[in-house]
Design brief:
CATH class of the largest domain: Mainly Alpha
Distance between the termini: 10 Å
Number of domains: 3
Number of strands: 4
CATH topology of the largest domain: Growth Hormone, Chain: A
Structural class: mainly alpha
Number of helices: 17
Largest sheet: 2 strands, antiparallel
Helix content: 55-70%
């Protein structure tokens, strides 16, 4: 009982169903972990390339292109916004037209092209402004870039944004396609994949924030950009080596058209009464061996009318006469699934507020603390986030191999806990992070004001920030990994790329929400004579701001609980 009554011909639907999921007729069965060295290897090297290129890019713009802080930040924010929106377009193209494999392939080549151009800007003096001394940069006496130089730089960023749109929304769904979810081994492998994916991403971040940044700053920008470009080339080679192992899921047409058809058909039949007989609802004459066990539910029952057969709406061959008047039961339930997911997605936006503060105000705290570690090591303030990455790299494999196994024995639940419970725990950790951050900031500010020197540095080691950095790492483990798994498991199969792109939209909207909160707090508190977020962190009230974020996150958590209690999980997958 699957398939969508859409504008595509039956032969395409039937061929797609047979090729994609019918393990009896397919030439190969899902390879599972055998495909992961190629798929996950490609993703790992791609992330090493993209993170390595961007890890220190702000410094590159200021030191080599002589941009001031505002212009450089504006360029980066614009590029970031485009890159976070691009996965939505890439997901649509993948699900509707060319499929995940070719979308990833196109994105990979776009990424390589963008990185080569970026490397050339560092390698060829003609592609960037002439060198300038540090004194000249401080006094604004450097020769700026011309339009051609800026155009080449922007062209590189455009190709990288296109690459993001191709790779990010499809990499995880394409990996999930390689597991046979009808077997216990395949389901366990699928569950472990999400944790392994985020673990490798964390390790990559550790490498880029240390080794690659060191090469770019202290050795050569050309080498620092060239290494990510070589990694991307290796990722492409590795990806195509595995072509004989992969399972390929063919696109099923426009996702948005199928969703719109349900609403249009339900509206046209709004005057009809729903019968009690399930046999009067439309089920297309297509069969698959791997199906979601879906039936029409009572939730949003007004949409059920879209699948109600009236008169001669079904032709003799079992196909619908007009997809804008009659939709399949599968279509209706898929739309209900989307409606259920939207509130969970909205709560995740505010749930990420705490994470957004770690890259800004935590660094500001570190700058006013003792950065000395031992007799000879001085920790860069911008590198304190490595503590979070180390916590994730250690805890995530332990959670996957030890904690989940223990929880499964107790709860008898696959994965130990439900997906929404995992996301909820992540939200609680984000609240706890802000509370701990607030208390630590209170102590830091009091220490700086009472015992600090003329430079305003508190006589407290920067390692006092470790608790809040570890807690935000736990929040990421439960929230982000949980959301990735939630979207990929709860979205309909033909919409997985769209679902995965929501993660990047969440990051984008969370950044905008954080900017709005910061602006409002800054303006309101300044008007009342006590600026919480002034330029001098020792005279501001950053701890109050942290407590405010904790309050907002707590209200958001209550809304999340309300949405989670009302959420209906998609039915399990069975072998027919």
């Amino acid at each position: 009982m699957s398939g969508i009554c859409s504008s595509f011909s039956p032969s395409e639907e039937e061929i797609g169903a047979a090729d994609l999921q019918d393990t009896n007729t397919n030439q190969r069965k899902p390879a599972g972990w055998k495909a992961m060295p190629f798929v996950l290897g490609n993703e790992t090297f791609e992330r090493l390339a993209s993170f390595g290129l961007m890890a220190n890019f702000m410094v590159y713009l200021q030191s080599e292109y002589h941009m001031n802080q505002v212009k450089a930040a504006t360029l980066l924010n614009t590029w970031s916004a485009a890159s976070n929106f691009a996965p939505v377009i890439g997901a649509y193209v993948s699900d509707a037209f060319i499929g995940k494999f070719w979308t990833i392939a196109f994105g990979s080549f776009s990424s390589l092209l963008g990185m080569i151009i970026m490397t050339l800007t560092a390698l060829l003096p003609q592609l960037r402004p002439p060198p300038c001394t540090h004194e000249g940069q401080l006094h604004g006496q450097c020769v700026g870039h011309n339009k051609a130089q800026l155009g080449i730089l922007i062209a590189s960023l455009c190709w990288l944004s296109i690459a993001t749109g191709g790779i990010k929304p499809c990499s995880i769904p394409f990996s999930v396609d390689q597991f046979d979810l009808t077997t216990e081994e395949g389901r366990k492998g699928n569950n472990s994949f999400y944790n392994l994916y985020y673990t490798t991403q964390t390790i990559v971040l550790l490498i880029t924030q240390t080794v690659v940044v060191y090469i770019q700053n202290d050795i050569s920008w050309a080498i620092g950009f060239g290494i990510p470009a070589l990694c991307m080339l290796f990722a492409i080679v590795l990806f195509f080596v595995g072509t004989k192992v992969y399972i390929y899921i063919k696109p099923e047409g426009s996702v948005f058209a199928a969703v719109a058809q349900v609403f249009v058909a339900a509206y046209k039949k709004r005057q009809l009464n729903l019968p009690s007989d399930d046999g009067q609802f439309y089920i297309p004459p297509f069969s698959r061996s791997l199906l979601p066990e879906l039936h029409l539910t009572r939730q949003y029952s007004c949409l059920n009318k879209a699948a109600l057969i009236v008169g001669d709406e079904v032709k003799q061959d079992g196909l619908c006469e007009n997809p804008w008047r009659l939709c399949s039961v599968q279509q209706v339930e898929d739309v209900k699934c989307l409606i259920n997911i939207i509130p969970i997605w909205l709560t995740s936006v505010l749930g990420f507020l705490a994470m957004n503060q770690q890259g800004t105000f935590t660094v500001a705290q570190a700058l006013k603390m003792d950065l000395q570690f031992g007799p000879s090591i001085k920790i860069p303030a911008g590198s304190v986030g490595v503590i979070t990455l180390i916590a994730i790299a250690i805890w995530l494999p332990f959670y996957d191999r030890v904690v989940v196994a223990a929880l499964e024995k107790v709860t008898k639940q696959e994965g130990g806990i439900t997906l929404l419970q995992r996301i909820g725990i992540g939200n609680l950790f984000s609240i706890l992070t802000m509370l701990v951050s607030g208390f630590l900031e209170t102590e830091r500010r009091l220490s700086a004001l009472s015992h600090g020197g003329t430079d305003g540095i508190a006589p407290m080691t920067v390692m006092w920030l470790t608790p809040q950095l570890i807690l935000i790492g736990f929040s990421e483990i439960f929230s982000i990994v949980g959301l990735i798994e939630f979207y990929n498991k709860q979205f309909p199969e033909h919409m997985r790329s769209i679902g995965n792109s929501l993660i990047y939209l969440t990051f984008s909207f969370a950044s905008y929400a954080s900017s709005i909160v910061i602006s409002v707090v800054h303006d309101v508190s300044a008007r009342h004579g006590s600026n919480w977020l002034s330029d001098d962190i020792n005279t501001s009230k950053l701890d109050y701001f942290y407590f405010l974020i904790a309050g907002i996150s707590s209200l958001n958590f209550l809304f999340f609980l309300f949405c989670a209690r009302r959420y209906h999980y998609r039915s399990s997958v069975k072998l027919m």
